[in-house]
Design goal:
Layout (H helix, E strand, L loop, with lengths): L1 H16 L3 H12 L2 H8 L9 H14 L2 E4 L2 E4 L1 H6 L9 H16 L1 H5 L10 H30 L3 E5 L5 H9 L4 E6 L2 H10 L6 E5 L12 E7 L7 H12 L2 E12 L7 H12 L10 H10 L4 E8 L4 E6 L1
Parallel strand pairs: 3-4, 3-6, 4-5, 6-7
Antiparallel strand pairs: 1-2, 7-9, 8-9
Helix pairs in contact: 2-6, 6-8, 8-9
Length: 324
Amino acid sequence: MVRQWKRVWEARKWMKQNEGFLPTWHAYLGYRLNFFDELQQNGTVGAHVKDRELLENWIQTGLILGHLKKKGDKVYPSSQMKQYFSKSSDVAIGDLLVEMMELHIPSLMDYAPVLKGETPRRTFDGDEHGTAVATTSSFIEQISYRAVKKVVSEIGCETILDIGCGNAGYIRRLAEEFPHKEFVGIDLNKAVVEDAKRNTKDLSNVRIEQQDLREWDNEGKTFKCIMMHNLLHYFSPVERMELMKNIEGLLDKDGGISLITPLYLSEHGQEFSAAFNNFLSVHENLHRLPTAEDVEVLAAAIGRKVTSLKPIVKEGGWYSIVIK
């Protein structure tokens, strides 16, 4: 009898842990389908939603969670939902939930059939998910910018290359603060490159190109500082070595490299890095996170050393790393 009661309490514990998923799902759906904007404008969702029963269930869930507020026969989003999960808001974080719900969770759910050999590993589609990933990467950029700015200043960079520049978040802010420095950003994704160009169109000291580093030599010109942020997991351990060899030819002898990356099995953020590593590993074209030791080996491969390794988001295992 005692064993059965323990079983029940254990089941309740696991069920309770899932309660935290409901607000995430509700906010994701409201952002993804633009419900929060529509409710803010009209107090209701239009007839374009065909299954009204499901819509009513979503609204009732929102009222229970406090995501929605009722005023008479109208329903409006809470101030939190309006600010952070409205597509019209300039501080929206909804893309983070889109990435998690449409990319990360489905990938983890594929683990079982992949493990059993019933299906091949997934393929990450940069064209489909590249813009959302670049947007969510901007959250890390907001946190890590001060560390990157310090690296650029300490190295004394006059020419800076950002490999995998994304939406040009780092470049735009740095170029505004350092108008006399020259910045070049390269990325593989055409849509992301177009966004980066739009974001830097008023900055004469910035050049953005759609390029593959492995096939690009910048006409023999080198850089004092090279940034690689949130990038290493797109390359296998062998490809990372080749990447460093490419970088060696683009880096001044007295230059430095700025890395922003999660580290696997580091002192901080082991749970997040483990989850992220599982997500990466189920894809045939994404690769496990590096460890601190891996980064030291990469630096040594081009005759350099890791001179700084500091956590910037401890709960996520994200680090700012300098190689000179």
